[in-house]
Design goal:
heterodimer; A: about 375 residues; alpha+beta; Butyryl-Coa Dehydrogenase, subunit A, domain 1; Butyryl-CoA Dehydrogenase, subunit A, domain 2; 3 domains; four-stranded antiparallel β-sheet; three-stranded mixed β-sheet; 11 helices; globular; B: about 400 residues; Butyryl-CoA Dehydrogenase, subunit A, domain 3; about 15% strand
């Protein structure tokens, strides 16, 4: 057992931290999230130059080796210092799905393009029905001539508005088992028949509705094998969930740190409010939740990276971190008092993100039901 | 980063498991309810604890963390945690939480060579059981204000005063006690750490009955009790410092989490087998959610415990102290929630004591009453949160 990160990972952490602090102050975050594009091409290009977009892939596909814990370190720092960017959509959701389910040619072509920063991608998974399960996949892909025609609507597709390609999860076959007959298509985001509208969300995180109206796709654009995509989604989701968890833990730590600092400097009744036991106990609970979140994050991420089966633990981590991050930011606002409720105060940025992060790749209720099934209920 | 055990540790874990599976078949039914109550609460429970202690002593597992020089195996903190995890899962007694958990680690750091040679071997063999003479009627969380006195008289100290909440004092052979030797000094500076024989004249042990009728706690009265100066650990008036030195033994609270895991497994089996209103309880969405939540929290706790072990292994005692407080409060509050959920699942049967009507031998009836004690004994949850705030977050005292 060795629960320390290696030296390279420590260097990655500190360089990422320095870069994000310098390049992405909170006023800029507020500005970016209100913009139409919802990201800063300038910062994104710098992230590409730093090689971040290749961090999750093996060298054969243009990456830097792909030790999964490197991605965890980077995501944690991107959560600590919020950076509105298409990184998660492109590298994590799309890249890891292609890595899991793509053919050799597809992996070579698309992962390399992602790694060098040539394309922005997103995964179009959820639908208006709001389900996280296979039964929620109703967008249809019907065979026609030498390809397929896609019809239907995808929801909450982050960064679809700025994407070059979408991975569209569609139903190619109706089956008694909803996990069968699901196929992923590589689709040009600007293809004719596609309409993309931004959905105004709490996280101001480029969440989009994407409508497919008779969109023709050649057969060659099927990712991997037709009809077998749900397994791919489940497998790559485990990694994506842990990456999202890392981002959440980083955000939770930042929320604790800024609230702790505020409690030490804010004076009422002639003493810092951090001297009041009530505030100390709120902060202690916040610290316990950050610590436990990080402990389960690292353990389960390591297992996922080692391909050790751990579906129950993945759901344990996401459900715990969902609730922990919300708790920490909620107490964070409370301890900040009135100022904490304003757009000007940074804690609110994290409070909003804690809620939207919960909804990505399974909310707490979804993961608790997964756990119930995994423990034999 | 690597979360796996070494092949030696995997082998060790298997040995521990085989031992507890075999030996726990001999346990009296009181052990179905778990906890220290099973040990202290009945003669058969105590007899079994003594039996297990001697068996563990023979295996060398009681002293496994000690240096080889004192009969130990120099086991890593991780090895100790693996042992505690397995023991917690099977609910095995035999480890004197006071002798093994506190006295021995203290002696190893703060005692003289002569004292170590005298006091350590009987602890390692599982032959001598200790109790803890710390809390007093007017010194609970504020332990440093304690007022039981020890006055020097030739080769002895003469002790007068009273201790309370002394778990197992009615069964223990020896006590480690904090006494005030400097009467001018009201706080921690005037305290001294002594070991004393519970058979010494002048000691009276009076039981405190818990709300469920169980006898674990006691009051202990000292009326001119003589303790040889040779039994003083560390210097006079330095007892507080002595108590702070025993932190490099595992403090991960792992046992709580593995015990929880076992309880969750039992409850899963129960809800699958039990029908109410024509449907298995396992199909009830509220029950599914609650058990899933507890299972998740138990996984979280386990990860937390191994992280503490790792910090201790590396010698990061300062941070580990805050983390150990965090684990204690997280672990005991989780254990309490688990008891309440178990009781909710059992419904009307949660109230039934050990009898033909009682599921799990009345475990949830008993634990519903004694789980509160977990959040109070060994530093209340409030004190633990203070420590996290002061040590972990640097907030002003």
């Amino acid at each position: 057992m060795n629960l320390d990160f290696n030296e390279d990972q420590e260097i990655l952490r500190s360089s990422a931290k320095n870069f994000l602090e310098k390049e992405c102050p909170k006023d800029l975050v507020r500005e970016i999230e209100e913009s139409k594009e919802g990201y800063s091409p300038e910062i994104w290009n710098k992230m590409i130059e730093l090689g971040w977009t290749g961090i999750a892939f093996p060298e054969d596909y243009g990456g830097y080796g792909g030790d999964f814990m490197n991605l965890i370190v980077l995501m944690e720092e991107m959560g600590r210092n919020i950076i509105p960017s298409p990184f998660f959509s492109t590298v994590v959701l799309s890249g890891l799905t292609i890595l899991e389910g793509g053919t050799e040619e597809q992996k070579k072509e698309y992962l390399e393009k992602i790694a060098v920063g040539e394309i922005i991608m997103s995964l179009a998974l959820y639908e208006p029905n709001g389900s996280y399960n296979a039964s929620g996949i109703t967008v249809s892909a019907t065979p026609k001539d030498d390809g397929y025609v896609i019809n239907g609507t995808k929801m909450f597709v982050n960064d679809a508005n700025i994407a070059d390609y979408l991975l569209v999860v569609a139903r190619t076959e109706d089956s008694d088992n909803p996990e069968e007959g699901v196929t992923i298509f590589l689709v040009e985001a600007k293809a004719s028949g596609i309409t993309c509208n931004k959905v105004p969300t709490m996280g101001l995180d480029n969440s989009c509705e994407v409508i497919f109206d008779n969109v023709s796709i050649p057969k060659a654009n099927i990712l991997g094998e037709a009809g077998k995509a749900w397994e791919v989604i489940q497998k790559s989701s485990e990694k994506a969930i842990m990456a999202k968890c890392a981002e959440m833990v980083g955000g939770a730590q930042a929320s604790l740190d800024m609230t702790n600092a505020y409690a030490k400097e804010r004076v009422q009744y002639k003493q810092p409010i951090g001297k009041f036991q009530v505030i100390q106990h709120y902060l202690a609970d916040m610290m316990i939740k950050v610590g436990t979140s990080r402990n389960i994050l690292y353990e389960v991420s390591w297992m996922v990276g080692q391909n050790i089966p751990c579906a129950m633990k993945v759901s344990a981590a996401k459900s715990w971190i969902n609730e922990a991050y919300k708790f920490i930011t909620e107490r964070g606002v409370q301890i900040h008092g009135g100022i904490g409720t304003t757009r000007e105060c940074d804690i609110g940025l994290y409070y909003r993100r804690a809620k939207t992060a919960e909804l990505i790749l399974g909310d707490t209720g979804h993961h608790l039901e997964n756990i119930a099934q995994e423990i034999g209920l | 980063m690597d979360f796996s055990f070494t092949p030696e540790q995997e082998k060790l874990k298997k040995e521990f498991e085989e031992f507890f599976i075999t030996e726990m078949k001999k346990a009296p039914p009181t052990y179905e309810t778990g906890g220290l109550e099973a040990m202290f609460g009945s003669d058969v429970g105590w007899e079994f604890h003594l039996y297990m202690a001697r068996e563990l002593g023979k295996k060398g597992w009681l002293a496994m963390a000690w240096p080889e020089k004192y009969g130990g195996k120099d086991a890593s903190v991780i090895d100790q945690v693996i042992f505690s995890e397995v023991r917690g899962y099977y609910g095995g007694p035999g480890v004197d939480i006071f002798g093994i958990g506190i006295v021995a680690p203290t002696l190893l750091v703060a005692a003289s060579e002569k004292q170590r040679e005298k006091f350590l071997p009987p602890i390692a063999k599982g032959e001598l059981m200790y109790c803890q003479g710390w809390s007093e009627p007017n010194a609970g969380s504020d332990l440093a204000s304690l007022s039981t006195t020890a006055v020097k008289d030739e080769d002895d100290y003469i002790i007068n005063g009273q201790k309370i909440w002394t778990s197992g004092a009615h069964r223990a052979d020896w006590m480690f006690i904090l006494v005030r030797t400097n009467l001018e000094e009201k706080r921690s500076k005037g305290l001294t750490y002594l070991l004393l024989d519970m058979k010494a004249p002048g000691i009276t042990v009076r039981p405190i009955e818990a709300m469920d009728g169980l006898h674990m706690f006691n009051e202990v009265f000292f009326d001119d009790v003589r303790v040889p100066i040779a039994n003083r650990i560390g210097e006079e008036n330095k007892g507080w410092e002595v108590t702070r030195q025993s932190m490099n033994f595992e403090r991960s609270s792992i046992g709580i989490f593995s015990e929880n895991q076992k309880t969750i497994e039992d409850l899963v089996r129960f809800v699958k087998e039990t029908k109410r209103d024509g449907k298995p309880l396992a199909e009830n969405q509220v029950i599914r959610n609650k058990l899933a939540e507890l299972a998740a929290e138990t996984e979280v706790g386990r990860a937390m415990a191994y992280n503490i072990a790792w910090m201790q292994e590396k010698g990061g005692l300062f941070l580990a102290a805050s983390a150990a407080s965090a684990a204690k409060v997280f672990g005991t509050e989780l254990a309490q929630r688990l008891v309440y959920v178990g009781a909710d699942i059992l419904g009307q049967y949660s109230q039934v004591k050990e009898s033909k009507w009682a599921p799990f031998h009345g475990k949830f009836e008993t634990n519903y009453q004694n789980c509160m004690g977990l959040n109070i004994a060994g530093g209340t949850s409030e004190i633990q949160r203070n420590l996290v705030a002061w040590i972990g977050l640097g907030l002003p005292r």
